[in-house]
Write a structure and sequence with these properties.
- It is a single chain.
- By secondary structure, this protein is of the alpha/beta class.
- The chain has a single domain, classed as NAD(P)-binding Rossmann-like Domain (Rossmann fold, 3-Layer(aba) Sandwich), CATH 3.40.50.720.
- It contains five helices and eight strands.
- The strands form two sheets. Strands 3-2-1-4-5-8 form a six-stranded mixed sheet, sandwiched between helices. Strands 6-7 form a two-stranded antiparallel sheet.
- Helix 1 runs parallel beside helix 2.
- The two termini are 20 Å apart.
Length: 169
């Protein structure tokens, strides 16, 4: 940190936050912007909502770019990572926030629906595609699985919770 970057600890860093158009992803993107990071805002359904979050990141003091992509599609993920690298010249932080949820009892979830949940939360693109970008610089590199979603009620009426996971290197 230096006086020229306002003492913001993530100044000069670049991040992707998946599922960043609402809730925890939105708050994470804005917090990264407040800390000085450049943030790629990712969503799958609403470009207008993504643009709104990008404006909030900029107002908080960061840089932002929007890239709509479905994280279950490896081609779209590759495009998202390339966009971050092209726009920011680096990728230091990857926040895996996206998680598909199914709003019905577990006993009614089909195998295909469950596969969709797993595909959205598997984080298959981290860290492999990001490593070549990150290796070009020294300093912290991290990938965080931020999503923690409460699953719908089980047949017994209890609620299931998926734990938070992450790594840093």
């Amino acid at each position: 940190m230096s006086e020229s970057d306002g003492g913001r600890e993530l100044a000069g860093s670049a991040a992707i936050v998946t599922g960043s158009i609402k809730n925890m992803g939105r708050m994470t993107a804005i917090a990264l912007g407040e800390a000085g990071a450049s943030v790629l805002i990712n969503g799958r359904t609403s470009t207008a909502a993504a643009e709104s979050v990008a404006q909030e990141v900029v107002r908080a003091g960061g840089r932002a770019v929007v890239h709509m992509a479905d994280v279950t599609d490896s081609g779209q993920v590759a495009g998202m990572i390339a966009r971050a690298a092209d726009t920011f010249g680096r990728l230091d932080i990857l926040v895996n926030n996206v998680s598909n949820r199914i709003a019905k009892p577990v006993a009614e979830i089909t195998l295909d629906e469950w596969r969709g949940v797993i595909a959205s939360t598997a984080r298959f693109f981290a860290p492999r595609p990001r490593c070549p970008i990150s290796r070009s610089r020294t300093g912290p590199r991290s990938s965080i699985s931020a999503a923690s979603r409460v699953m719908p009620a089980s047949p017994t009426g209890r609620r299931w919770r998926r734990p938070r996971r992450g790594w840093s290197g």
